[in-house]
Design a protein that fits this description.
The complex is a heterodimer of chains A (about 260) and B (about 425). With about 260 residues, chain A is an alpha/beta fold. Chain A has eight helices and 14 strands. The N terminus of chain B is likely disordered. The chains are: A alpha/beta (about 260), B mainly alpha (about 425). Chains A and B meet through strand 8 and helix 4 of A and helix 1, helix 13, helix 14 and helix 18 of B.
Chain lengths: ~260, ~425
């Protein structure tokens, strides 16, 4: 298997007396979709925020492309080429798709906005992702459905040549057809060689698009396995009890010494 | 363009379009092909609540009809020229407010900030014998500083702009009163400043400028269309662009023609030409339209007004945007105050107080700027300002009691805010 693009080793994170992440190891491989699963409170969001640079680490290594990097804020992470697509998407409703995709990074020519280049690049990006549902790149984002908004947010990551895209519950609020579109898009991202992290509660989605599954249980990694080696019910077991057959945490930390 | 997308229809025509020269995507709709389609699009947008300046334009027409029928003098050339001068200070103030409103904030102190600036400018000339441009510069700097203080209080302390500017509304009236003295008044006799309102651009110069403006507008529109066509971007039909240019030319040349006629009531001398305030307003309009539409700064203003959190995550300095909007708002207020003093010929302690600000807020909102942030253009201030000035002018001609004036203006502001709120609701329902 290829070297991981991004790797966390032995990460610990506490908020006051609450120890949220225990020696977490996490890896993202290029061209693969890594699903991050776990129950509420298992530490998924904290781990994502540590990766995104929003939270610091108490201990542990942060490696990118095999080299340890110092990360002290979201800007450092963005500079590495890691884009986080949050659940609430953070798009401006009053702007159109092109304007949103280039927001904060507008192309300029002679001090003024270069609308022509931006529109052409946005169109090329959407085209390269085989986006099917958007009728016009000059459509206001307010008029888009949830799936289309997700598409725009993801396309933004592609436009900026991100190497890793973290998707926080991308299908949580979507209908069947829209979920289908977003999952197809997630798969295409990986096929382009990006490392994709999919945070999801939906096991059907995970089984369908993910290459690897990392299950968190009470802040520990219960398992980090290829999706092919597990099935739906075993992942659920890992999420709910931290163990499943030969996989999982040896001793249940909930009943272990506190 | 802004209709609800239909995936089925879009995928149907996909293969043919996908083969197009460069990387289109399925269902990629690059232009509204015909004038009819563009019109249909516009109607759909209107229905969806994206009314833009249409209510203001219709309102203006209605007001002209009503006042024209009610008073014979309303359509007289001298009154129309007077109306243009009256509107100038409202339009200028409203243009500054558009920036503040774009962020979803409000500046209640803008009117009295203009009063302070006009008092400072007046005193610089009267008491200190400064030349007009030093006086104007001093006034504008005072305005910018007021905006800076308001902006810092709003952006860093997080006090709602409503409260900060209400405090400034009261305090700045005290400043004007202290500068001028109770019952006092500063005469504005400087030839240049006073001349803005009472002197006119020579007729030939006015015509040359008007023709130049039309030619430049047409050239820019056509150049843009050419770029869009050659680079295969989304663009309006050529017929619509042509129609816009013609409409623009008719308005600009028509107004110039009317103002170039002799409007003097006295046969012994001639009054003709565009009042000097008009080019001042036009320059400001062009400047702010450019800033809002063509620069990254303008784009970021819209972004912050639409979704401040998204703008922050995109790396935009939201605090800076807020402060700068208040600085622009108060600076424009200062210019507006000086224009108002030019019109009235004096500055007194109540300059910029009373209903000045509500007129300007009303103007911006009537013109189509949203009180909820994220929507607005500089030209909204022009159209809305004309509506407000027409009301003030028409009621003045009808010699109505002051209370009617207050009632009508209050009612119009409320009406505009209602239209804004309703269209916002329709927009969120229709998703335009």
């Amino acid at each position: 298997m290829a070297e991981p693009l991004l790797q966390l080793r032995g990460v610990n994170k506490s908020f006051g007396v609450v120890h949220v992440l225990h020696d977490v190891d996490f890896a993202v491989y290029p061209g693969q979709v890594t699903a991050l699963v776990g129950d509420n409170g298992a530490g998924k969001s904290t781990l994502v925020k540590v990766i995104a640079g929003i939270y610091g680490r108490d201990s542990g290594e942060y490696l990118f492309d095999g080299r340890e990097v110092s990360v002290s804020g979201p800007k450092d992470v963005a500079a590495l080429g890691v884009e986080v697509v949050y659940q609430d998407l953070a798009l401006c409703d009053n702007l159109d798709i092109v304007q949103n995709m280039f927001l904060g990074r507008e192309e300029k020519r002679g001090g003024t906005l270069d609308e022509a280049s931006m529109e052409a690049r946005a169109r090329d990006t959407l085209g390269s992702l085989s986006v099917r549902t958007v009728t016009s790149v000059r459509q206001s984002v307010a008029s888009l459905s949830g799936g289309q908004r997700q598409t725009v947010a993801i396309a933004k990551a592609v436009l900026w040549n991100s190497k890793i895209v973290l998707l926080d519950e991308p299908t949580a609020a979507l209908g069947v057809a829209q979920t289908r579109q977003v999952l197809d898009l997630v798969r295409r991202l990986a096929d382009r060689g990006l490392g994709v992290v999919l945070i999801s509660h939906n096991m059907a989605d995970v089984m369908e698009v993910a290459d690897r599954v990392t299950a968190l249980y009470l802040g520990r990694v219960a398992a980090d396995v290829p999706t092919a080696d597990v099935n739906h019910s075993r992942i659920v077991e890992l999420i709910t009890s931290g163990r499943s057959g030969d996989l999982g945490i040896a001793e249940n930390p909930a009943t272990a010494t506190v | 363009m802004t209709t609800t997308p239909k995936p089925e229809a879009a995928t149907g025509s996909a293969p043919a379009k996908q083969d197009a020269s460069h990387g289109g995507f399925s269902g990629d709709d690059r232009r509204t092909n015909t004038l009819g389609a563009a019109l249909g699009d516009y109607v759909r947008r209107l229905r969806g609540g994206d009314t833009g300046s249409l209510p203001a334009v219709l309102g203006l027409v209605a007001l002209y009809v009503v006042f024209g029928l009610a008073n014979d003098n309303f359509f007289s050339l001298i009154n129309q020229a007077n109306l243009a001068v009256q509107a100038a200070s409202i339009v200028t103030l409203a243009m500054g407010l558009v920036f503040v409103l774009l962020l979803g904030e409000i500046d209640l102190s803008a009117g009295v900030a203009g009063g302070v600036a006009a008092a400072v400018a007046g005193l610089a000339i009267v008491d200190h014998g400064q030349s007009w441009w030093v006086a104007v510069l001093a006034g504008v700097v005072v305005g910018a500083v007021i905006g800076l203080v308001i902006g810092v209080l709003v952006a860093y302390l997080g006090i709602p702009s409503f409260v900060v500017t209400l405090a400034f509304f009261l305090a700045l009236q005290g400043v004007t009163l202290k500068l001028i003295g109770a019952g006092g008044s500063i005469p504005v006799r400087d030839e240049v400043i006073r001349g803005l309102a009472i002197d006119n651009v020579p007729v030939t110069v006015g015509w040359i400028a008007a023709v130049l403006i039309v030619v430049v507008f047409a050239a820019l529109s056509l150049l843009r269309l050419r770029t869009q066509i050659t680079r295969d971007l989304q663009h309006p039909p050529a017929s619509l662009v042509a129609l816009r240019i013609v409409a623009f030319a008719v308005i600009v040349l028509g107004v110039t023609a009317l103002l170039s006629l002799n409007r003097s009531l006295n046969p012994n001398f001639v009054i003709a030409g565009v009042p000097w305030v008009v080019p001042v307003v036009i320059v400001l309009l062009v400047l702010w339209t450019f800033v809002l539409g063509r620069t990254a700064y303008g784009r970021h203003l819209y972004a912050v007004g639409g979704n401040a959190e998204a703008a922050r995550r995109a790396g935009i300095n939201v605090r800076f945007m807020k402060i700068s909007a208040f600085v622009i708002g108060s600076t424009m207020a200062a210019i507006s105050g000086i224009l108002a003093s030019s019109y009235s010929g004096s500055v007194n302690p109540s300059s910029g107080a009373g209903n000045t600000l509500l007129y300007a807020v009303g103007a911006a909102v009537i013109g189509g700027t949203s009180l909820f942030g994220g929507r607005g253009r500089a030209v909204d201030a022009l159209i809305g300002g004309l509506v407000i000035a027409t009301i003030a002018n028409g009621l003045g001609l009808l010699n109505q009691a002051a209370y009617i004036n207050f009632l009508v203006t209050g009612g119009v502001l409320l009406l505009a805010a209602s239209v804004d709120a309703i269209s916002r609701r329709r927009r969120s329902a229709a998703g335009v």
